[in-house]
Amino acid sequence: MLNEIKHIFFDLDHTLWDFEKNSALAFEKIFHELNLDIDSQEFITTYNPINVAYWKLYERNEIDQESLRTNRLKDAFEAINYEVTLEEINTISNLFIDYLTTNNHLIDGTIETLEYLKDNYKLHIITNGFSFAQEAKLQKSNLAAYFVTVTNSELSGHKKPHQNIFQYALSLANASKNQSIMVGDSIEADVLGAMNFGMKAVYFNPANEHVSHEQIIQIQKLTQLKNIL
């Protein structure tokens, strides 16, 4: 039953904030600025799955933040057979963080959905992203005004899917489990993380990927939340 829901917790990257589009534009700017002969679209196609894989390692505490930032680039350049030095990788990594939030495209339907929900629910963010970057994304994309609280893994001391980050977020929001629901694009971090904690969850699954858990509520478009909540 979803009629008792009062608090909606959203993931940020890939759920509301279009990480793929914004990161592609950041790399395009970097390659042009550094005069690197790289097709930015080819690079981002290679980089995206590598980045996702490294984020999963980071969420499981198998690598630290610096390893995430460096090795995802190193592996992507190796995959396209483009030689770069460690110094160049560090430069690109720093520029990427600087430039990532200069573009702030949102997932289709984000504003429409938040406008629909904001009057009847308290909206919140739970993100594993780095705090300085996530705050910049929320401010520069004009999303910040929609959310009552923002929980990130650095503040809580834990990353999704760890139950402690969900407990931290609920405490910050003064919300209970039965009044709360999580919406996110990661089946492991967002959906199963929330469900194992005892919260309801909605899987944002725009690619309509097969999910073995039949009881999971799925949407392919954010605007479909209007039919659920």
TrEMBL record:
<dbReference type="InterPro" id="IPR052550">
    <property type="entry name" value="Pyrimidine_5'-ntase_YjjG"/>
</dbReference>
<dbReference type="InterPro" id="IPR023198">
    <property type="entry name" value="PGP-like_dom2"/>
</dbReference>
<dbReference type="InterPro" id="IPR006439">
    <property type="entry name" value="HAD-SF_hydro_IA"/>
</dbReference>
<dbReference type="Pfam" id="PF00702">
    <property type="entry name" value="Hydrolase"/>
</dbReference>
<dbReference type="InterPro" id="IPR023214">
    <property type="entry name" value="HAD_sf"/>
</dbReference>
<dbReference type="InterPro" id="IPR036412">
    <property type="entry name" value="HAD-like_sf"/>
</dbReference>
<protein>
    <submittedName>
        <fullName>Noncanonical pyrimidine nucleotidase, YjjG family</fullName>
    </submittedName>
</protein>
<dbReference type="InterPro" id="IPR011951">
    <property type="entry name" value="HAD-SF_hydro_IA_YjjG/PynA"/>
</dbReference>
